[in-house]
Amino acid sequence: MSDQKNAADSSATESSPCETPGSECNGIGTRAQREYKDEIVKDMAIEKMRHKMDTIVQKVEKDVERKLDLLVDDLVNEVKIFNLKNYELRQLFREMNPSAVRRSENDSGRRRSANGTLPEKEFLARNSLLTDLFEVKHIKTIYHIFVVILIIMFLNTVVHDFVDRGSINLGLRPIIAGFGKFHLALLLWSCMQLSVLCVYPCFLVWARLHKAFQNKTLRKIWDLCSILVLVSYQWGFIIGVIKTVILLDLPPASSIAVLMEMTRFSMKVYAFVRSNIPRALSPCSKISADDKPPHSTPLPAFSKYLYFLFAPTLVYRDEYPRTKQIRWPVVFRHALEVLGVVFYISFIFERFLMPLFDRFGDAQITAGNFVLALFGSIMPGSLSFLCGFYCLLHAWMNAAAELLRFADRMFYRDWWNASSFPEYIRSWNVVVHDWLYTYIYKDSVEHVFKNCRSLSTVLVFTVSAVFHEVILAFAFRFFYPVMFVQFEFMGLLLMFVTRNVSKDAGNVLLWFMLCIGNGIQLSLYNMEYYARRNCPVSGASMIHDYLVPVSWTCNGISHNPNWTITAPWNLS
Predict the structure, then answer these.
(1) Which among 207, 264, 413, 507 could bridge 427 via Cys, Cβ 3.0 to 4.6 Å?
(2) Which H/E stretch holds residue 337?
(3) What is the pLDDT of residues 383-393, one digit of tens each?
(4) What residues act catalytically?
């Protein structure tokens, strides 16, 4: 027991040698504690430094990311501008290497033929310019501004009617008045569609019998009779639709829609027949594309003709560039834009134009009020002009192209940058311009006037002016050739006036003439329309009723200073 006790004391003594005060072990322990504290402080400093470094790295990453985003946006904008302006590069390339341009397309999608004739239309897969421009956020903001203006005009109309009349008006009265009897317009359109579908089997019958006649004299007689039948059909189609519109007494907007479709169908029929006559006359042509030899040129199938009738183009081709699928969100968005623009124009008419012209024909008009009404319609006319362009040539055409998977969507070019009137005419409505170029200008230069381009240009302007005037004259039930004068005389005059001016001055002059011209046209047509409503014609002679302006004869312009313009808001 004593040995065990001694061993325990000895072990205890060995295990705690620093228990004696003043021993060296006490200094060693203090140094270890200081080192331990230093390690803790160092770890805390390193952790704090690491935290600061992480914060700095995050700030640098955010700055770099923000700068990269700006650089990417700038790069995208440059690419968009390059894509939109690539025709200018092709123009430069044309000046540097004309021989290569003859093998490539030009800025309007046409390609020079191998025999040196005028270039032909070539369809390419491409977007509309505004579709690409809206990818740039600065341009997209302008679109948002127009949407906000539409909302403000809607609220303005509602508040004005609520305060003035104690009732809420949603701006629907011009739409209801303009698109009345729309079901009859749809029925008439269906009959027009069935009539145009019958052209295809008639064309095949002509082609078969043309090849069946071996005698050249009989063949010429058959061809001459077929031409007379085609011309008679076109005239009968146009006259029949016009008479039906008058008989049904369709309102202006419905009449314009039907007459525009009448014009489109007539242009489509002519384009199909004109494009396929050379193929039918070819000795190697066949009616069907089945089992055709390599050298044959078969006539198109009915499916191609049917697709052409609905495709957003007036130039016939057997095949067009197509997209892979229909993007339904794009279709719905453009459909909503069409409805929005219709409401937009309705608000413009109800808030700005109806108060100016609603009493024309009902009271004497002073010269001062006439001038005020004329200039007061310039801005509403310009807004209606821009809205009509966006509704028809962008939203409507892109919606139709998306539904039909039609890939070439260059329905217009940058006409707003044009510095001359010829450039504006070529860029404003590419769809109609391509038809006029392909079937009127090109054929007249090559076959009728023999390279006399001036006469061909006058013919193109005349055809365009006549069709525009026919639509307006029978939609409003009076002949008031303001559009014809603008196209035929002012248009040709501006072609020479704006030819040699600078780009900036030409663009300013062009926009000035567009705003003034649209304002004058809109005001004069409104004056005559409301004058005929407030002062009905006698009905004794159709020629007299259609040709004599009522706004000049019934309570016309006088020097009475007591007459003032009011807004009775009557659309009934």
Answers:
(1) 413
(2) helix 328-348
(3) 888 888 999 99
(4) 468
